[in-house]
């Protein structure tokens, strides 16, 4: 996955109902006195299958649970089911409602959360003979001392059907002068940077196994907190039933909204992205004219799924919104949006490397894919 920005506690992101960025899970229900909670991703355990093999699943207490399962033709293994992996899981489940989704993790810290969103977790080192038709590797390199080896291990869990996808970073492209960069741009030579050496080594493992690569630009996301203001004005002289209808409709909207926000909290808990770090700092010692490229986590997930569904072999794709912005432009948009309770002050740097201006039109044309968030200002509701 794209590397470089660690999650940092930050001011929450707020939208009004009129914002162009909406919560896709919200579907108002018919008025009812007792709206029923329905799981958005149902937890379907592998033991429901008619045939069986053995799969080890470790829970948060460290206990090893053995479930019987059969691996289906659309089942997915997510290695590193963090923010990106969880959104991939949610979208994959919508594409294939009857599939099983599995997650390999380094620790059991988030196994309860994963099970609540329909992902069957297990520790990476758990012994399993299962081979999965679809495998996506989303784990970052900073959690391990042998990143290429981890990708090799993940590839060994692939059956050779479906697709194997490694989510890499656009940092491997050799461009640092704010110049143009696309899928065919040369990569950083081996030996120049340890960071890119590790990424390129991991990419090689995936390609050698017949998998594909998606090099992602800077990932970002914000927790969606809406300020809901509903004005219901009715003149209903003696019409008591209509008053009840108003309040029950309002209750149904709010209740559904609450359930969906609770579900989103299982997908991600922190705002992420370069703007989050800079906003928290206020003043940053970096040059303001450095050009960055971004892609929303949702779009990175939908792009990953589009690649896997094509069942391609040995291909490299680029994930970005094709709307490069300088650091200064990004933070100007943040301040203009009025959606944060802090204001960014300034960048003070005057030297250092520049960035790149990326365009992934070739990726879009081949896959028939387009991002939901076409640019960072569009995400903030500043453009149509």
UniProtKB/TrEMBL annotation:
Keywords, sorted A to Z: Isomerase, Membrane, NAD, Transmembrane, Transmembrane helix
TM ranges: 217-238, 250-268
Keyword NAD: yes
Family matches, as SUPFAM superfamilies: NAD(P)-binding Rossmann-fold domains
InterPro entries: NAD(P)-bd_dom_sf
GO molecular function terms attached to this record: isomerase activity
Family: Belongs to the NAD(P)-dependent epimerase/dehydratase family.
Name of the protein in its database record: NAD(P)-binding Rossmann-fold superfamily protein
Organism of origin: Canna indica
């Amino acid at each position: 996955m794209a590397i470089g920005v660690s999650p940092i506690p930050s001011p929450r992101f707020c939208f009004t109902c009129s914002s162009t960025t909406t919560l896709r899970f919200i579907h108002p229900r018919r008025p009812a006195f007792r709206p029923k909670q329905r799981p958005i991703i149902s937890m379907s355990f592998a033991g429901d299958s008619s045939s069986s093999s053995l799969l080890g699943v470790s829970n948060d207490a460290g206990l090893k649970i053995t479930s019987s399962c059969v691996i289906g033709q659309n089942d997915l293994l997510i290695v590193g089911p963090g923010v990106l992996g969880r959104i991939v899981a949610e979208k994959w489940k919508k594409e294939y409602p009857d599939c099983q989704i599995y997650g390999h993790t380094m620790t059991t810290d988030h196994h309860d959360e994963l099970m609540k969103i329909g992902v069957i977790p297990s520790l990476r080192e758990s012994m399993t003979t299962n081979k999965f038709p679809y495998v996506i590797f989303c784990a970052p390199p900073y959690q391990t001392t042998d990143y290429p080896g981890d990708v090799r291990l993940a590839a060994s869990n692939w059956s050779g059907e479906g697709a194997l996808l490694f989510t890499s970073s656009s940092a491997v492209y050799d461009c640092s002068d704010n110049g143009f960069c696309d899928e065919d741009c040369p990569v950083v030579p081996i030996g120049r940077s340890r960071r890119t050496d590790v990424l390129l080594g991991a990419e090689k493992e995936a390609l050698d196994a017949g998998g594909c690569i998606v090099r992602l630009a800077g990932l970002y996301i914000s927790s969606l907190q809406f300020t809901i203001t509903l004005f219901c004005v009715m003149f209903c002289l003696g019409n008591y039933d209509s008053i009840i209808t108003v309040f029950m409709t309002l209750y149904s909207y709010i209740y559904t909204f609450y359930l969906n926000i609770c579900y989103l909290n299982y997908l991600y808990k922190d705002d992420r992205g370069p703007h989050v770090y800079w906003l928290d700092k206020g003043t940053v010692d970096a040059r303001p004219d450095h050009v960055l490229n971004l892609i929303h986590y949702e779009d990175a997930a939908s792009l990953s799924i589009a690649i896997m569904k094509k069942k391609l072999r040995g291909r490299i794709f680029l994930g970005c919104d094709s709307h490069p912005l300088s650091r200064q432009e990004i933070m100007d948009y943040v301040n203009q949006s009025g959606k944060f309770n802090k204001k960014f002050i300034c960048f003070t740097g005057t030297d250092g490397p520049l960035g790149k201006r990326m365009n992934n039109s070739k990726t879009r044309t081949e896959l028939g894919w387009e991002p939901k968030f076409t640019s960072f200002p569009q995400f903030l509701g500043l453009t149509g």
